[in-house]
Design a protein that fits this description.
single chain, Rossmann fold, alpha/beta, N-(1-d-carboxylethyl)-l-norvaline Dehydrogenase, domain 2, 6-stranded parallel beta sheet
Length: 450
C-alpha cells in the first residue's frame, strides 16, 4: 500500500519507518525543509534506539522517502496519516490543533481518489469530526473517510511498541475505511495483535484515558513511597507485592521524581479540559496533575535535606536530565524543575546525560555540563541520580568516593542498594525507603553547612 505520513517528528518518523519495513511505500512529509534535507542525508533528528538503522535500510530499499510538499504523496496514497504536533495551549491546558487542521486543509487540496485520512496525533474527542468537516467543506467531491488511529509508542521502545503492539485501535463507522486499515496492519494482525474497531470518538478518548491511567499509577506509587518513608516500609517491596496481582500489574510502579515527557503532562491537562467543556468530573486526574507538580519541588527539598538543610554554594552533580532513559527528550522532565529549584537555593549545578544535553542546554543554560558521569561527580558535595540510564547502574562507587568532596548520594530512581552505597562510605537517600542515614559522613556534611 502507499502511505503519506504528514509530520516527520517522533510519531511520524517512527510510524513511517515501521510501515515501510512492513513493505508499504511511505512518504514522510514535513514543512521543516531543514529537517527534510537532513533526513534525506540520512541524519535522524531524534534519538530512538534502532531508528537510524531502520530508516537507512528502508531508504536504501526505496520504500521510505522524505519531502516538504505533500501533493504528490497524497495523490497516490491509500492512507494519509496526520502525525503533527498537538502541544498544550499556553495557560489553558487544551491541545493546540492548528497544525492538525492545517494538515487537513492541505490534504483536501491534493486528494484525487478514495483515501483514508487517519489521525495518529493525540487529539481531543471530536477532532476527527472537525477534520472531516474541513476536508468536505474544501472538497465536497472528495471520496475519502476520516478515521482515528491513535499511537501508543513509548519513547525509548517505540519501534518494539509499533511492531509488537498490545492493540491497534481504529476509530470509524465506515466499513470501507476499516477494511483499508485492516489491510495496512495485516502484517501485525498475523502476529495476533488485536485490531479493535470502535467509533471515532471512542478511539480519540481511548488514548487520553490510557495515558491518564498510567500517569495515575506513577503518581499513586509516588505517594505510597512518601508513606513508606514515614512508616519504615520499602516502596520497592510494596510495588513488587501489589504488582504480582494481575489486576494491577507491575509496570509503571517505579517510584521516582514524577512523570514527564511529551505525553503524560499534556494529555492529562487536555483530558481535564475536555471533561470541563462537557460538564464531566475529572477529580482523580486533576489531583494526579497537582500531586505530580508538587512532586518535583519535593525532590529538590529532598536533596537539600540530604545536604543538611542548606545547598548554598554547594556543588550538586546531577546524572540524567531526560524524563526517561533511551531518549534525548527533556520536555517536561522532572530534572528541569529540580535543577531550577536547587539553583534558586544557591547551589552550583553540574550535570551529565548520555543523550539529552544538547536539548537541556536550551532550557537550562546556566548549568555546567560534564563529559561523563565521573567528571560530573568530581568535587561534588552531593550526587543526584535523576534518570535511570543503564550507564548509571554500575558506576564505580569507590572511584566516585575518591572524586567527590562529600559522599552523599541521592538516588531518585532507587537503582542502588542502600547497603552497597553505605559500604562505600556514602550517605544514601532513596525514594520510599526507610529514613535518612546518619553516618559520620552525613554528620560532617551537616556541620560543614552551618
Amino acid at each position: 500500500m502507499r502511505v503519506a505520513m504528514i509530520g516527520a517528528g517522533y510519531v511520524g518518523l517512527v510510524s513511517g519507518a515501521c510501515l515501510a519495513d512492513f513493505g508499504h511505500t511511505v512518504s514522510c512529509i514535513d514543512k521543516d525543509r531543514a529537517r527534510i534535507a537532513a533526513l534525506n542525508r540520512g541524519e535522524i533528528p531524534i534519538y530512538e534506539p534502532g531508528l537510524q538503522d531502520l530508516v537507512t535500510a528502508n531508504m536504501r530499499q526505496g520504500r521510505l522517502s522524505f519531502a516538504a510538499d505533500l501533493t504528490e504523496a497524497v495523490r497516490g496514497a491509500d492512507v494519509v496519516f496526520i502525525a503533527v504536533g498537538t502541544p498544550s495551549r499556553r495557560g489553558e491546558g487544551g491541545a493546540d490543533l492548528s497544525f492538525a487542521y492545517q494538515a487537513a486543509r492541505d490534504i483536501a487540496a491534493a486528494l484525487e481518489r478514495y483515501t483514508v485520512v487517519a489521525t495518529k496525533s493525540t487529539v481531543p474527542v471530536g477532532t476527527g469530526d472537525e477534520v472531516e468537516r474541513i476536508i468536505r467543506e474544501a472538497r465536497p467531491d472528495a471520496d475519502m473517510s476520516v478515521v482515528s488511529n491513535p499511537e501508543f509508542l513509548r519513547e525509548g521502545a517505540a519501534i518494539s511498541d509499533f511492531k509488537r503492539p498490545a492493540r491497534i485501535i481504529v476509530g470509524t463507522e465506515d466499513e470501507r475505511a476499516a477494511a483499508v486499515m485492516r489491510e495496512l496492519y495485516r502484517p501485525l494482525c498475523h502476529d495476533h495483535a488485536p485490531l479493535v474497531v470502535v467509533s471515532r470518538r471512542t478511539a480519540e478518548l481511548s488514548k487520553y484515558a490510557a495515558n491518564a491511567f498510567l500517569a495515575t499509577k506513577v503518581t499513586f506509587i509516588n505517594e505510597i513511597a512518601d508513606l513508606c518513608e514515614r512508616v519504615g516500609a520499602d516502596v520497592q517491596d510494596v510495588a513488587r507485592s501489589i504488582g504480582l496481582d494481575d489486576r494491577i500489574g507491575a509496570r509503571y510502579l517505579d517510584a521516582g521524581p514524577g512523570y514527564g515527557g511529551s505525553c503524560f503532562p499534556k494529555d492529562t491537562l487536555a483530558l481535564i479540559r475536555t471533561a470541563r467543556e462537557h460538564g464531566a468530573a475529572s477529580r482523580i486526574v486533576e489531583t494526579v496533575v497537582a500531586v505530580n507538580d508538587e512532586r518535583r519541588l519535593a525532590m529538590a527539598r529532598k536533596v537539600v535535606a540530604a545536604c543538611g538543610g542548606e545547598v548554598r554554594d554547594k556543588r550538586v552533580a546531577v546524572l540524567g536530565l531526560t524524563f526517561k532513559p533511551n531518549t534525548d527528550d527533556i520536555r517536561e522532565a522532572p530534572s528541569i524543575a529540580v535543577v531550577s529549584a536547587l539553583q534558586e537555593a544557591g547551589a552550583r549545578l553540574r550535570a551529565y546525560d548520555p543523550e539529552g544535553m544538547a536539548q537541556a542546554r536550551l532550557v537550562l543554560p546556566d548549568v555546567d555540563y560534564a563529559d561523563d558521569a565521573y567528571a560530573c561527580a568530581e568535587g561534588a558535595d552531593v550526587l543526584v541520580i535523576m534518570t535511570e540510564w543503564d550507564a548509571f547502574r554500575t558506576l564505580d562507587l569507590e572511584r566516585l568516593g575518591r572524586l567527590m568532596r562529600h559522599l552523599v548520594l541521592v538516588d531518585l530512581r532507587n537503582i542502588y542498594r542502600p547497603d552497597e552505597a553505605r559500604r562505600h562510605g556514602f550517605t544514601y537517600v532513596g525514594i520510599g525507603r526507610p529514613g535518612l542515614d546518619h553516618s559520620p559522613e552525613a554528620r560532617d556534611l551537616k556541620a560543614a553547612t552551618r
